[in-house]
Structure formats: C-alpha cells, structure tokens
Amino acid sequence: MGRTSAPWAGDACSLVDAFRRGERSPVEELEAVLDAVGRSSLNAFSFLDPDGARERARHADLSLPFGGVPIGVKELDAVAGWPDTEACVVFAGRRATHTSVMVERATKRGGVNPFGLCTASEFGGVNVTRTVLNGATHNPWRHGATPGGSSGGSAAAVAGGLVTLATGGDGGGSIRIPAGFTGLVGLKGTFGRIPRAPKVQLGNLTVATGVMARSVRDVARWFDTCNGRDDRDPLSLPRAEGWERELGTLGDALRGRRVAFAPGWGGAVVAPRMWDALDDAARRLARVTGMSIVEADTSLPRMGAAWSISGMLEIRAQLGGAWPACADDLTPEIRFGLEATEGAYGPDARARIEARRTDLNERMAEIFSEVDFVVTASNPDVAFPAEGPLPSAFGGIDAGAGNNGRLTFPANLYGNPAISLPAGLLDGLPIGLQINARHHHEPLLLELGSAMEREMPWPLVAPASPC
After folding, report:
1. Residue 436 and residue 374: Cα distance in Å, rounded?
2. Domains and CATH numbers, the chain
3. What is the pLDDT of residues 364-406, one digit of tens each?
4. Is the model's pTM score more than 0.85?
C-alpha cells in the first residue's frame, strides 16, 4: 500500500498488524478514511462523527483485537447520540438513546473506532439501498449498479476501499446479498449468536447481526469479539471462542463431508450463466477440501404471503400515527407493502405463519440429516440498477420480483448459519457462492471460506477504489 493518504487496502487484521508495527497510526488511518469518504461518489454514509472518532483514535488501545480500526456502522444499528432513523424520512430527526450490544462489544472488547453510519434500505425491508432519505447507494464495482440491501452502504464502503469493516444485519439475506453483489465475505451466524439488545423487539425471529468484511479471518475475529449471551436477549447463545485461532486447522473435519448443490434453493430461479460459474467454483472447493458431492432432495415449502404480512405489521407499528399521511415519504416498496397488507393480519394469518414455519423447520432438519452443507447462489443474478426497481427476470427467465431473496431467506427462518463467499466475476460484477450449514457449525463454514480464499483468492477492494 505505502500511502497514508489513502485508506488501508488490506483487511482489518493486517491493518491492526500495521498499527502495532508502527507503520501507520489510528489517527492517520482515520484521516485517510474521512478524506476518502468525503471524495467518494458511492453515497455509502449517511452520518459522520469526525470529532468523536478523532478523540477515540488518539486514545486507541492497540492491544485489542481491532484496536484503532475505523468502522462504519449500519444505519439500522443504534449508537447513542447518533441518528436513529431506520433510513426513513419520518424519523429523520430522531437520535439513539443507547448503543447496540454488538457495537458496544466491538468498541470496548475489540477496540474499533466507529466514525459514521452507513446507508441502508428503509427499515431493512428491501434488497436495494435506495431511500427517500438518502438517495441511492452505488456498487463500487460499477457506478449505477446496486450494492444490494439492506446492508448496502456497509458493503459499498468496505468493497469500495473506504473502510476495512462495517457492521451488517441479516433478517432475510441482508448480509449475504450485498456481500455477493460486492465481492465480500458475509456470514449470517446461527440465530442468537450475537445478541440483539438492548431494547430490541424480537419480531419474526429471523434477524442476525454481523459484519461486512474483506477476509475470512476478519469475520472470524469479529465473531470472536462480539458473540456471547446477553440476558436482555433471552434467545442469545452462550459464548463461543477460538474461531480465528482455529482457521486452517479444521481441514480433517471437512474431509468426507456431504454437500448438496441446490441452484433452486427456496424455490428461486438463478440466471443459468451465473450458476454455471458458481457450480465450477463449488466443485473446485469440494475437490480441494475432500468433500463428497451428493444428490439430495433440497426442495423446501414456501412461506407464502403471510410472512410478509407480519413483517409489514412491524413497520406499521413503528410508524404509528404517522401512517398513512407519511406515505409519500416512504420508498415505493415499503409504501406498497403497507398498503397491500393493511388489515390483512389476523388469527388466520398468524396460524398460517406458524404452520408454514413448522413445515419449513421439519424439512430443513430432514435435509441436514442427509447432508452437511447445501451450496447455492447468494443472489439470483448480478447486481441490478441502483435506483431499482427489483428485477423480475433473471438470465432471461421471468420469475417475478419475489424471486429476489428466496435464496437467502430459508436460513433466516430456520436460524441456521450461512455464508456468502466471493466466487469470481460475471460481466465485470462479483458473484457470491452461498453455503448453508447446520446450526452452530459456523467454524466449518469459515474453514470452507479459508480454503476458498487460498484456492481462489479474491480482490479485497474493487478496482476503482480510492486505494
């Protein structure tokens, strides 16, 4: 890299090493990041706290896992005193009164330096980061294309060379989808792995939080830092340790594991050209790790519209008395969803939701009794336009706008871990390979990521990044 005038072009772990060797300082890195953000056309940040970040940089503890590393925080995460908008005009003036447990742990245990909020889709409800409040965020691999959503600003900032890490959240694919579109590593952990607290409503029980990162070891270190039970989240899991330390040591645990390929996972349609490329990458990964590719029935029941109805109910509750007068202040997708589901939630819809989730849980358990991993795509096609709308055709196949997200949503409903790994380019845009595993098997997913990183290394930032 060699230039302190540009942000670090490696991963966060190597930046920490550079700090400790005295090759650059947290203050220098922060100033380079702030300058790059100011010059960027990605529209990846909605708020900056330069004065607070400068103070933290001056007192960075380099002994901590991410000591001194500047990070972006997803706009839907809470940081006390910062805007708390849900990426929605209705809440443009609201400020957070608390900090999320993940950001707090990353700061206090990990030593990161949060300096600003990354753009997100409104209420985290759409796979494109374009809102009335912030406008459209762009993919660093191609201006005018989306980085996905809802963690789109976080993905654009990390892949675009602005910052080495940014937080993410995944309630229906919102870590894995942007990771796939921007060439990053995105892990959705087992439900409850990182607590959602304080003052968080559990809702549909699908949301997992994590990080958008350039390398597998960065993801492992992040989870080592942030996971572990918090009593304010009754569904959070006990602490797990040593994920970074174990990287590269679990090869024997992968050998002989059974993997099924599921291009139509969740009933999705995937562009044929993209699946051809992903199939090649997955077979190569299976070969180098000694896994066995098997034929298996990976069909899943559909959740249907009832699940969307309940999600819109949560948004409707947040808007309170502002709805419907605020309709024109909302993104088209959220407005349409609220209008279409008005009054549709009741005892029958609730019963259907529970019955269909039970069916899905039973079916997922059957699948994972036969195989260890299910390989699919992270997205049905390459990134679509940044302004939207959501596409309905994928590789020339008409599948409807509901096809977006079908590949990722099963892991949110079942709560199992799934990872998106960079798997090359198609027409100059990144594509992501998604691997699903049984509950609590994140270390094996990270080991697969480490093997893929060695066998098929990916660029850490997009070619047009500030570095």
Report:
1. 5
2. 12-455 (3.90.1300.10)
3. 999 999 999 999 999 999 999 999 999 999 999 999 999 999 9
4. yes
